[in-house]
Amino acid sequence: MLRFDRVSLTYGNQKILNDISFEIQEGQFAVFIGPSGCGKTTTLKMINRLIQPDSGHIYLNGQDIASIDRYELRRHTGYVIQQIGLFPNMTVAQNICVVPKLLKWPKDQCDQTVRALLDMVEMPYDQYAHKYPSEMSGGQQQRIGILRALAASPPVVLMDEPFSALDPMTRRSLQLEVKNLQQKLNKTIVFVTHDMEEALDLADIIVFMDRGQIVQTAPPEEMLESPATDQIREFLGKHQSAPDPAGLTVDQFMRTGIITVKQDRGINECVSRMQHHNVDTLLVVDGARRYQGTVSIADIRLTGHVVKTIGPLVRCVTPTVHTGDNAKECFEQLISSGFPYLVVLNGDETVAGIVTKTSMASAMAEQLWG
Amino acid sequence: MNELLVSILQAAAVHTGYTLVSVAIGAVLGLTLGIGLSRLPALARYLIPLLSILNTVPGIVFIGMLYILTGMTPATVIIALSIYAMFPVLKNTVVGLDSVDAQYKEAARGCGMDHYQRLVQVELPLAMPTIIGGLRLSTVYTVSWAVLAAMISQGGLGNFIYQGVSSNNNALILQGAVPAAILALILGGLVDLLQKRAVPRGLRKGRDGK
Questions:
Q1: How many contacts does A have with B, using Cβ atoms within 8 A?
Q2: What domains can be seen in chain A, in order of their start residue?
Q3: What is this model's ipTM?
Q4: What is the pLDDT of residues A182-204, one digit of tens each?
Q5: How many whole angstroms from its chain centre is CA A228?
Q6: Which of A77, A81, A89 lies at the smallest CB-CB distance from B106?
Q7: CATH class of B2-201
């Protein structure tokens, strides 16, 4: 449908586009994204010949666009810009009909088009057709901007950051509307944005550009799954797919660096260690650092005066789990056991860490909000 | 008394005639040149300052020089006044077209308008408030400059003023000056009416601050 074949553009000695080639299929929603100055808008404007390439060819349905009259080409290519650019001297109806008029459609056909299009975005003809752009909100204006681009039913519609000047609520509803229109009318859309969320929501295919080159071309799911470079990963940011919660293991959420004490240590050393770290329980290990149980300050107070070492005071009731155990099961155990924490052991029975209700809550928060 | 009124009205009619013809010619010239210059920004950069300097040549000097070329005829008056009337329109046309917001030019290009369509459908309508502002200025100025017609005996309200000045007759001066002032007010008002009609409704809202 639309094909770039080794297109380059240089301003002075700065390469704006460097040997770009790609192809967009009919009916595809292609989103170009990348850091500012990456050449995405330049690429878009080449499609309706607002910018001419230095070298290379652009084919629309197999025809080199350099051989099409540029006014004719633009009249058959929809164009929506960020600043909206509705003509303030024309009514809504006149704005929508700009291109049909340039194409010399008869008047009643123009009227029908205006009615049908306004109907499609649920803006009643009687209420809106004769308003001027200055009498409408930004969101309504851009809706008309989109209708103006669609009026002469062009096969390809170009959109240059059309929603980035709108508030988030309006942006969201317009995104949905555009996606609906595109699917209903089977348009090929070339869309430029710097908003990854927008790209992921709308695109059939995302083209990531940087410094005049295409870095990766992939459907949203594929780009999320395997971003080609760190830069893309950064752009994906919080949208990158979280690991499957069912596959999470307990060691991803445990607290490490737990204070332990050897079982042959004296009561006094144990108490001072508790004071120093401001805890009321210590994990007790043997000479090989294997987990033996816990010792609490309450037990020491009760019977500490009759024993020298903590060995006899060790209790072994706190539930233990092992690293690699399923996180969900561990959480369930923690909650049903009534203990304030679980001890997580390594394969060799040494202490790996503990899971508390706090670490569980923060782990869930991370899953939810990233 | 009746005779006086008739003579004032006659002079005022001649005066109005000079003004309207000159402003019409000047406006057409100014608009055409202005559009031309706005298409050739390189040329405009040099030509606009040059024209501004010409604009500062006193009318009295200019009419004097033209008088040498074209003699004591109404043509001398019309040519001189037309050229003066042209400047404000020319300048405002260039400024008005120049200050059309880039988004409209970009949208017009993207819609597939050619140069002429962009000019007529988008740029000129958007520049119209500024251009008519220039027309108003040149109309009011021309009313006062037309007084100079009397300098080369071509009638108009200037007649009374010149006679009054040379005979030190204040009543005679006022007899010319007051109708000229009223004429300026009336013609200025007419241009304001034109402004209301020629400026598209969509552009008017914001200007009124409503």
A1: 79
A2: 2-239 (3.40.50.300), 247-369 (3.10.580.10)
A3: 0.81
A4: 998 899 999 999 999 899 999 99
A5: 15
A6: A81
A7: mainly alpha
